[in-house]
Amino acid sequence: MSDSPTLRTVLVTGAAKRLGREIALALAAGGWQVAVHFRGSAQEAAATVQECRNLAAVGAETDSFQADLGDEGQARALLPRVIQRFGAVDAVVNNASIFEHDSIQTFGYNALMAHLRTNAGAPMLLAKGLHEHVHSRQATGVVVNLLDQKLWNQNPDFLSYTLSKAALEAANTVLAMALAPQLRVVGVAPGLTLTSNLPSPEKFEQLHRLSPLGRSSAVQDAVSAVKFALENQSITGTTLLVDGGQQLMKFDRDFSLM
């Protein structure tokens, strides 16, 4: 545990891979102590921790924490574990989410509840826990929720995922009011940022250019927006759209299915 009062600590959920990993690395390089959360990617989380340590300031620490955020008990226990390890936590970046396809034709309670638990319920519990923690320290903190430009350019694909992210976007406003002045709550909504198995790399590059600016969000754009949300003391209860203007264009299908 660090005794330095100048070191700030951030919990980044889903930080073992992809965008969460890049956020963790950037924050470690920026002087933050980083708690790397993961669900099942233990090997990738260990690699992220080591890279964070290589980038960290002198005296800053990094560690990993496993939890299934779809389990309420594990979600509630995560932040106290991080506090016990680091002594204090100043921020939470809610990046972890599940993203599984369904539509109105295949919709059911099980899929909806699974998405809501991880994508909306856990971020709200972590925000509640951080508020209690900083309030007890007579300090302030910030929660950054990773959202999706789909909310401003809706289509019927990935229905339960979209509904869960819509709930989290609404929570930005509700939590910003309920947890002020100790806690700021800010959303960051990237556009098409990272490729996966769908679509192909060639199709990804084509889709990435479908925006008024001729490009959607690069990884660094999303990371910079998260850092800005963490640092700017006057932003709360709103969402930063980082998508090259893709929300201004109508897409009838999700990118992965176009």
- Rg (C-alpha, Å): 18 Å
Number of strands: 7
Instruction: Name the average pLDDT.
Output: 92
Range of helix content: 40-55%
* Count, helices: 7
The helix-strand sequence is EHEHEHEHEHEHHE
Beta-strand content:
15-25%
Spatial sequence of strands, sheet with the most strands: 3-2-1-4-5-6-7
The CATH fourth-level homologous superfamily: NAD(P)-binding Rossmann-like Domain
Report the end-to-end length measured between terminal Cα atoms.
Answer: 48 Å
- Text of the CATH class: Alpha Beta
- Overall structural class, as computed from helix and strand content, comes to alpha/beta
Q: What is the CATH fold-level name?
A: Rossmann fold
- By CATH, the architecture is named 3-Layer(aba) Sandwich
Biggest sheet character: 7 strands, parallel
Low-confidence stretches: none
Shape: globular
Count of domain modules: 1
